[in-house]
Amino acid sequence: MPAPADVVFDIMSDVETMQRWLPTTVEVADAGPDRVHVEGDTGGHHYSTDGLFRAEKDQLRMEWGSEGPDYAGWAQVYHEGDDASEVNLHLSFFGDQPEAHRGAAAERTHKDMREALQRLEDEVARRTS
Predict the structure, then answer these.
(1) Residue 59 in contact with residue 43, Cβ under 8 Å?
(2) Directed axis angle between helix 103-128 and helix 5-12, to 10°?
(3) What is the β-pairing status of strands 35-42 and 45-56?
(4) CB neighbours of 26 closer than 8 A, spacing ≥ 6?
(5) Exposed / middle / buried, residue 109 (Cβ in 10 Å: 0-12, 13-18, 19+)
(6) Which of 92, 120, 85, 89 is nearest to 106 (CA)?
(7) At a CB cut-off of 8 Å and minimum separation 6, what does 115 contact?
(8) What residues does 66 pair with on adjacent strands?
(9) What is the pLDDT of residue 109?
(10) pLDDT tens digit string along 3-30?
(11) For the chain, how many helices (H) and strands (E)?
């Protein structure tokens, strides 16, 4: 990422602008302590749900998850120098979603993750230049 880790984290964890870098998301809104409401479209299906959300500035780490035991994820920002950082994105799928780890669904998830990181990089560059 083309900015220091703390700047990237602030941009990445900003709930009001998160939909700019999340590829399938059209709206993200604060839904109370450690919660967000997320709406969007993926794989031709609309979703609108509340989920868990934590942004730990002192750890440069963001964590989220679905209401049920469907999925969870985290993003960690690492210092890479004065004006550079790296973001590691991780998703885990549980329960009735074994197909998320194979075939077309897994390919779509990897594509969406790569797109999310590229869009985050573009958002960071736009907001810091």
Answers:
(1) no
(2) 120
(3) antiparallel
(4) 19, 39, 40, 41
(5) middle
(6) 92
(7) 23
(8) 51
(9) 85
(10) 999 999 999 999 999 999 999 999 999 9
(11) 2, 6
The β-bridge partners of 74 are 63, 90
Residues in the chain, total: 129
Q: What is the DSSP letter of 95?
A: T
Q: Using one digit for the tens of pLDDT, what is the confidence trace for 46-105?
A: 989 999 999 999 999 999 998 877 889 999 999 998 899 999 999 988 876 556 667 887
Angle at 121 between CA 71 and CA 103, to 5 degrees: 40
Place of tokens 């780890």: 101
Q: In sequence order, what are the beta bridge partners of 55? A: 62
What residue type is assigned to position 3 of the chain? Answer: A
**Adjacent-strand bridge partners of 93:** 71
Q: 45-56 and 25-30 as β-strands: parallel, antiparallel, unpaired?
A: unpaired
pLDDT at 124: 97
How far is the C-alpha of 36 from the C-alpha of 21, rounded, in Å? 16
In the numeric block, the tokens 């035991």 are attached to 69
Say which amino acid occupies 43. Answer: G
Name 50's bridge partners. 37
